[in-house]
Specification:
about 50% helix, Glutaredoxin, four-stranded mixed sheet, Glutathione S-transferase Yfyf (Class Pi), Chain A, domain 2, 8 helices
């Protein structure tokens, strides 16, 4: 069996990769890294020169960036059913990379206090936060339960994690459509397992009260 290793920090976007790995169900090892320490070590920079987590190494394949990790794992373990058939991947790719581009950029910029002026919206790929947010609401408001209809996919893992965090930490305004969408996802056993594993790791590493 090909070795699969997750490089992460339990208080990071690595939680997305952990969730995806739990959905896949393949055995994996975990290497925990700390900010301004092992995350910037020569050994880890050889894996990800950005010095960021998460990253996975699967055999001789190294994958960084959460969206890429989710997409890779869906393809590497097709038996998990986390990617639609090739002729039905329009929505899958659309919303996966909408989350990686406009959502990530708009939410981060808003959290940092950066606002795009009206006259410069055309320069930003996401326009402004309201443009992104309105599109996000529309994406999760369709009658179908998931982004690709009735099939839960890696796109739901990636976008859904951002919605869950956005609602939890207030980086996205509350909306009934977001709450309804997230309620479907947070009930998944894989999400619960991943969350418990990362919470336990954070406590062990002294990153949360009581740890």
């Amino acid at each position: 069996m090909t070795k699969l290793t997750l490089y992460t920090n339990p208080m990071s976007r690595g939680r997305i990769a952990r969730w995806m790995l739990e959905e896949v169900g393949a055995p994996y090892d975990v290497e925990y890294l700390v900010y301004d320490g092992s995350m910037k070590s020569p050994d880890y920079l050889a894996i990800n020169p950005m010095g960021k987590v998460p990253a996975i190494v699967h055999g001789d394949q190294t994958i960084t960036e959460c969206a890429a990790i989710c997409a890779y794992l869906a393809d590497a373990f097709p038996e998990a059913g986390l990617a639609p058939a090739l002729d039905r991947r329009g929505s899958y790719y659309r919303w996966m990379f909408f989350a990686a581009g406009p959502v990530e950029s708009a939410v981060t910029n808003r959290a940092l206090g950066f606002q795009v002026s009206e006259e410069r919206k055309r320069m930003a790929g996401y326009g402004d936060f309201d443009d992104m947010y309105g599109t996000l609401i529309k994406a999760v408001s369709d009658a179908s339960p998931y982004l690709c209809g009735d099939q839960f996919t890696a796109a739901d893992v990636y976008l859904g994690a951002q919605v869950g965090w956005g609602l939890q930490f207030g980086s996205m305004p509350a909306h009934d459509a977001l709450a309804t969408y997230w309620s479907r996802l947070e009930s998944r056993p894989a999400w619960k397992r991943a969350n418990e594993l990362d919470d336990a790791a954070a406590a062990d590493l002294g990153m949360i009260p009581g740890g």
